[in-house]
């Protein structure tokens, strides 16, 4: 028999509810501030960049200078879109999850455009096989593939031309059972990003997904060590998983397993 007075239980529940509501109000206030910074403080200087670039493009310029300015304009347009997407992402907690049918092939192609100069400088070859359309948050998919592709291009061997391969496979029911964290009976795709870079020691497979953890402290590989932690968080938010496989000097593979459809209940 429960000897706890009923009134004490009710008071405890009320206290917990009030505490939760206070935290929610705090999160909403932070969200509003973040939305303001994103929509105003970031977009205004970007707008000026676009205006001045447009003014320069109206002048008579040499072909290479015009091309460079046009690239700046395209990058500014893309940044403006990312800021708008980021603003939408910041409202996820209030407006529900903005999961929409997302063409991963288009996402990867768009992400690669951010690295066109690096690809040109290194002579990298990128093979992209057909990728599926899944229910996802487009901005988060862009973040995920930008991090994976960026790492594949950054952690390259100095004496080897970078080679990237992106592919996808629909998993069968038996393959899904091999991933304990996945919902059985659902359809999943495994997207693989493979490179021929410097690779990593398999003993550190889990460490590379920890926030601010870096396996390579060399000045030739700048970064904060947060990219793969973001990738894992995004995969988990999509009710999927991400795994890394590699060997030192033999390249790396990142397997991202994502559901074809996002359901409100797991």
TrEMBL record:
**Entry's InterPro entries?**
HATPase_C_sf (IPR036890), HATPase_dom (IPR003594), His_kinase_dom (IPR005467), HisK_dim/P_dom (IPR003661), HisK_dim/P_sf (IPR036097), Sensor_kinase/Photoreceptor (IPR052162), Sig_transdc_His_kin-like_C (IPR004358)
EC number, as in UniProt: 2.7.13.3
Which Gene3D superfamilies did the record assign? 1.10.287.130, Histidine kinase-like ATPase, C-terminal domain
Matching entries from SUPFAM superfamilies are given as: ATPase domain of HSP90 chaperone/DNA topoisomerase II/histidine kinase (SSF55874), Homodimeric domain of signal transducing histidine kinase (SSF47384)
Ranges of residues in domain Histidine kinase? 37-262
Swiss-Prot/TrEMBL catalytic activity: ATP + protein L-histidine = ADP + protein N-phospho-L-histidine
Q: Which GO terms describe its molecular function?
A: phosphorelay sensor kinase activity
Q: Which UniProt keywords apply?
A: Kinase, Phosphoprotein, Transferase
Q: Which CDD domains match?
A: HisKA
The identity of this protein, by name, is histidine kinase
């Amino acid at each position: 028999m429960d000897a706890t007075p009923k009134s004490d239980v009710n008071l405890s529940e009320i206290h917990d509810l009030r505490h939760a509501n206070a935290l929610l109000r705090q999160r909403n206030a932070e969200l509003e501030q973040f939305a303001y910074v994103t929509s105003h403080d970031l977009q205004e200087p970007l707008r000026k960049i676009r205006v001045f670039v447009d003014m320069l493009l109206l002048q008579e310029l040499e072909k290479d200078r015009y091309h460079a300015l046009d690239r700046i304009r395209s990058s500014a347009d893309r940044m403006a879109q990312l800021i708008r997407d980021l603003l939408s992402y910041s409202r996820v907690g209030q407006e529900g999850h903005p999961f929409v049918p997302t063409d991963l092939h288009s996402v990867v192609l768009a992400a690669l455009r951010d690295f066109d100069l690096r690809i040109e400088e290194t002579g990298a070859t990128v093979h992209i096989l057909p990728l599926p359309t899944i229910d996802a948050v487009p901005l988060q998919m862009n973040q995920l593939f930008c991090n994976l592709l960026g790492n594949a291009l950054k952690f390259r061997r100095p004496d080897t031309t970078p080679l990237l391969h992106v592919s996808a496979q629909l998993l069968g029911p038996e393959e899904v059972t091999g991933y304990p964290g996945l919902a059985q009976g659902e359809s999943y795709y495994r997207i693989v990003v493979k490179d021929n870079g410097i690779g990593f020691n398999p003993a550190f497979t889990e460490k590379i997904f920890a926030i601010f953890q870096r396996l390579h402290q060399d000045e030739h590989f700048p970064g904060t060590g947060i990219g793969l932690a973001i990738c894992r968080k995004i995969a988990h938010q999509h009710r999927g998983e991400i795994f890394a496989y590699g060997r030192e000097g033999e390249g790396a593979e990142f397997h991202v397993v994502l559901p074809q459809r996002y359901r409100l209940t797991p």
